[in-house]
């Protein structure tokens, strides 16, 4: 069953990890895809090649989501390439693990600007295009289990993920009258570049895996299905919702 047949899907931070899995997963479900990326032009080009091999259109557009002008530029160029925007996936994010008491101001501010400000302006630009073209749309934000729980070395990061989750709740209300649905996915620990160094600590990695009832840490493809479901008409009456995709880690208290 093709859940996004003929849809135009935009994904930020999609040259690697969860964004890449979502972009390729959307193409497998019949979508044309525009990806935003920052650095790693080769990886972005490889993602485009993989999508084109599935018989779909793909375009990669470089830009730093921390800069608000990237949002309008990405949406305008993606719309020019694909004709419209049906689905927007806000995925780009960083988590430079650091202790709280000596958190550098620049690290705090960069994390806020990429993860939260970036999401705000990207979602706003995508929503404006959806409103202009008419016919509704779907927005899915990659928040985190960290929207609900803390992390000792993530005091700058967890508030951004709670913020993204909250943004989807408020935009669900602001955009409902236009038929635009807004939801978030809350991944648990997924093995990607974002936590490669943190999980190089084998004891920590084992501890994290041990609290997952499904018995393993996640992989990027574990997110593709939930993101595509929320983006698709199967979820036509779902808005303002958050879907944990964590193998059960959140509910595993004792
Ligand atoms: P990743 O590092 O593989 O992917 C992040 C992507 O965002 C990269 O492609 C990176 O180039 C891009 N990016 C970073 N800063 C950017 C910027 N300023 N402008 C444009 N692109 C930028 O890691 P990932 O795990 O795939 O992360 C994707 C999202 O998933 C993030 O928002 C992260 O917070 C979220 N998340 C990840 C996990 C996890 O355990 N991996 C868990 C919960 C949520
Ligand atoms: C997630 C969660 C994961 C961590 C990533 C970076 O939100 O906290 O455990 O590895 O962020």
Question: Could you describe the 3D structure shown?
Answer:
With 254 residues, the chain is an alpha/beta fold. Helix content is 42%, strand content 15%. It contains 7 helices and 7 strands. The protein has a 7-stranded parallel sheet, with helices on both faces. The chain is globular and about 50 Å long. The model has no long low-confidence stretch (mean pLDDT 98). Nicotinamide-adenine-dinucleotide (NAD) is lined by residues 12-13, 15-19, 36-40, 64-66, 91-95, 114, 142, 144, 187, 189-190, 192-195.
- Please name the CATH architecture: 3-Layer(aba) Sandwich
Helix content: 40-55%
Rg, nearest Å: 17 Å
The biggest sheet, with number of strands, parallel, antiparallel or mixed sense and barrel status, is: 7 strands, parallel
Q: Give the number of DSSP strands.
A: 7
Q: Can you write the helix and strand succession as a string?
A: EHEHEHEHEHEHHE
Count the domains: 1
Shape, please? globular
Distance between the termini: 39 Å
Order of strands across the main sheet = 3-2-1-4-5-6-7
CATH homology group = NAD(P)-binding Rossmann-like Domain
Summarize the structure.
This protein is an alpha/beta fold. 42% of the residues lie in helices and 15% in strands.
């Amino acid at each position: 069953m093709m859940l996004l047949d003929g849809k135009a899907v935009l994904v930020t931070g999609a040259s690697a990890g969860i964004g890449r899995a979502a972009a390729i997963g959307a193409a497998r479900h019949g979508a044309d895809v525009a990806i935003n990326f920052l650095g790693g032009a080769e990886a972005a080009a490889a993602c485009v090649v993989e999508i084109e091999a599935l018989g779909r259109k793909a375009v990669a557009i470089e830009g730093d989501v921390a800069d608000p002008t990237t949002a309008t530029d990405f949406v305008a160029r993606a719309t020019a390439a694909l004709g419209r925007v049906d689905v927007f996936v806000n995925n780009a994010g960083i988590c430079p693990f650091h202790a709280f008491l000596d958190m550098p101001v620049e690290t705090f501010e960069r994390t806020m600007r990429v993860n939260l400000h970036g999401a705000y302006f990207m979602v706003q630009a995508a929503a404006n295009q959806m409103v202009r073209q008419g016919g509704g749309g779907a927005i899915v934000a990659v928040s985190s289990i960290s929207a609900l729980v803390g992390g000792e070395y993530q005091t700058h990061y967890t508030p951004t993920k709670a913020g993204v989750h909250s943004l989807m709740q408020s935009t669900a209300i602001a955009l409902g009258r236009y038929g635009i649905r807004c939801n978030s996915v809350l991944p648990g620990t997924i093995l990607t570049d974002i936590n490669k160094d943190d999980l190089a600590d084998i004891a920590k990695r084992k501890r994290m895996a041990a609290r997952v009832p499904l018995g393993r840490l996640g992989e990027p493809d574990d997110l593709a299905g939930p993101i595509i479901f929320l983006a698709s008409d199967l979820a036509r009456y779902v808005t303002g919702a958050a879907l944990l995709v964590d193998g059960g880690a959140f509910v595993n208290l004792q």
